[in-house]
Design a protein that fits this description.
single chain, Aminopeptidase, 285 residues, 2 domains, alpha+beta, 12-stranded mixed beta sheet
Length: 285
């Protein structure tokens, strides 16, 4: 059966082709879905022209990809991990002269795309952060520390900006702090960032990237002096419960596998592993 590669100018077209299939495993595909849905409402949100494409064999979706330069390409491939589909994505990117700094996705799909990219470009590639994608459908409430959760307000903006900068430093190896800070500020303004307050703010977490039936938790940060007191567990549990209380079926989050403390925290409050995710960076050929 012949393959068809389609590249879209707008996120609505991409979702029209890919949404039904991606939603069958919505939690696993929440990053790609969440970004595409954001682009439907706010096409300029990520500050660059997005790349969105699908590969189909007849009426069967075999591959999908989304990229908002300068960020890594996100790839999805069906259960058979169709190498032809991933190769057609690589060909489309090369033909369009898209800048591809790297790829992120479930381990098998990301590595298969990296092989396809290297075979065409000669580019070297190396694995960056290894992550676990988690899903929660019921909060197992921890033993809460002193204090309470509350939405961050305009009076907290300076603190949130500092914490967002420190969060970026801890999690990423690039200098795009401003984007993380702007995202945190937007979460405050929309009422989607929560603080755990024990006399003073001690930790934060935000609701990000809603999908039809789920929502992600991100920007989880506790300053060094307040760690190991249960504040992160408390604020993540409360944010997760609010997501479920608002009618979503599940919450998702990503955790760096190099940080056993955060992985332990998330598992203890009900998050269960969904997939291993890897970031891959491309070098010169």
């Amino acid at each position: 059966m012949a393959y068809t590669y389609t590249e879209f100018e707008g996120a609505a077209g991409f979702l029209g082709s890919a949404r039904e299939v991606l939603e069958r495993e919505e939690a696993a595909n929440s990053l790609m879905l969440g970004i595409a849905l954001r682009l439907v409402d706010e096409p300029a949100y990520y500050g660059s022209r997005p790349y969105m494409a699908v590969v189909e064999a007849g009426s069967t979706l075999c591959g999908a990809a989304v990229m908002t330069p300068p960020f890594r390409l996100q790839v999805w491939a069906g259960a058979e991990l169709d190498q032809v589909a991933l190769g057609l994505v690589a060909d489309g990117l090369l033909q369009g002269r898209w800048p591809v700094a790297g790829v992120i996705g479930c381990q098998a799909a990301a590595e298969a795309f990296a092989v396809a990219w290297r075979s065409r470009t000669g580019a070297n590639w190396s694995a960056g952060m290894w992550m676990k994608l988690y899903e929660l459908r019921h909060v197992e409430h921890p033993r809460y520390p002193p204090g309470h959760a509350r939405p961050a307000s305009a009076q907290d903006l300076d603190l949130v900006r500092r914490w967002a900068w420190a969060f970026h430093d801890a999690c990423f190896d690039d200098d795009r702090h401003d984007r993380t800070v702007r995202g945190a500020q937007g979460s405050v303004e929309s009422g989607r960032l929560m603080l755990w307050v024990d006399g003073e703010p001690c930790a934060m977490a935000a609701r990000i990237r809603p999908t039809p039936h789920g929502e992600a938790v991100g920007l989880v940060y506790t300053p060094t002096e307040a760690r190991r007191r249960g504040y992160a567990s408390a604020v993540v549990a409360q944010v997760s419960q609010r997501i479920l209380d608002d009618g979503k079926r599940f919450c998702t989050l990503y955790a760096d596998l190099a940080n056993p403390t955060s992985n332990s925290i998330y598992r203890s409050i009900g998050y269960r592993p969904v997939a291993d995710v890897v970031e891959i960076d491309f070098g010169e050929g």
